[in-house]
Each structure stands twice: as C-alpha cells, then as structure tokens.
Design a protein that fits this description.
Length: 227
Amino acid sequence: MTGELVLTRRALVRNALRKGVRGSFGIVVAWVAAACGSSSPSGFGGTVRAGPLQGLLSEIDRERQPAYVPGARAYVTRYPASALPAARTVPAYSQLLGGMEQGVVVMYQRCTHLGCRVPWCMSSQWFECPCHGSKFNRVGEQRHGPAPRGLDHFVVQVDDGGVLSIDTSRVVIGAPIGTDTTGQTPEGPFCEADATLDLHPRSLSLAQPASSPPGSPPSSSWWWSWW
Ligand code: FES
C-alpha cells in the first residue's frame, strides 16, 4: 500500500514488546489480540478519541504548542488555511486533506530518522529531535537534520458532534524533504543542536541539566524514549 503502513497483527505484537511490556499479562493480551485477528478498537493501533476539535484548537493557540494525545502517541496541531493551496499539491498529504481543511493535522511522535520521540521546542516553535538534531516545522515538515522525510501522520475524523478521532491503525508516511507548505521559519532559538548544521541550542542547560549525572541522556527521560 503506497504512502502508508498498516499496523498488522505482527506489528501489533512488536509494538507491545517495544513499549516495554515485559510482563506476561501484556504479552498475553497482545498475542490474544493477534490471534483473534483484530486490532484493539481503541488505544494505539486503533481509533483514539482526542476530544472536541474546537477546544483542542483553542488550547493549541492559547498554549502556543501542539496538544499531545498519549493514547495516540501523537501531536495534534493547527493546520493553517493559508497553507491549503500548497498542501493540495503534495501527494503525501492526499489522505490528510480532510483534516487539514478542518484546520487540524496530527503527527506521530516517532522521529523518521531512527525513532526517538520528538518533543516540541517552545522557543523555536518547531519539533526538534534530541537524538541527532532533526528539526521539523509546526506541521511536521522536515527542515534540518538527518531525518529522511517529515514526521509521519495519522488520518483524523471529526464526527457530527465535533469530536476529533485519530486513526492510529495506519501510519501515513511523512512528506518528502523539501516540502514546506507553511513557510514557517524558526520563531526563536533552537532547543537542540543540529549534528549537520551550525545550529546551537538556546542553552546547554536545557539539553543537559546540571543536576544530571555524567552520561545521562541530554534531556528529561520522557523526551528520550524509543519506540
Ligand atoms: S532519531 Fe531523530 S534525528 Fe536521529
């Protein structure tokens, strides 16, 4: 299937194992789901209800950061109407246009380079990967670093009541390098150094807290998870 990955039964089991579900109960649940031939109807691998869309968009605007939906392992952010003409020319966005036209796009948190979780940087207003410095603009388009494409996406639906749901059963492959539908430039200092460019973090204390023991990951542990 072009441009998307389907979370197969094998992938469902693999995801459960990668999450660190080491207990027999978690493994049994994953295998039972696989044996039954169905993904879980909700939660990661299924459809995740994120909440009322307008409320989410208001929160995103007020907080100046995407809304994180843990159950979907994804970020919800506003897609600007001014960028729609450009988005309609990007084949990778063909499945996302429905959401974009309602002002929303959802990014999978996993870096498209080697899989680190990519946090949001408040100062630059971009996503910045702590592992090797890849940077993505507000809607997940790759702007710098070794990531081979933009952040991957999930398709969304908005029901008659205005509630946003995220379909995490399919990963829509991110847009190719060079895609820049919003023209958003960094809005302040970067949080992470870039391994391939002379871009410096705002403060080394952000990347390596002084209280951290030598050799610690260069940011708080929830920024440093692998999937
Ligand atoms: S894993 Fe994100 S830049 Fe390498």
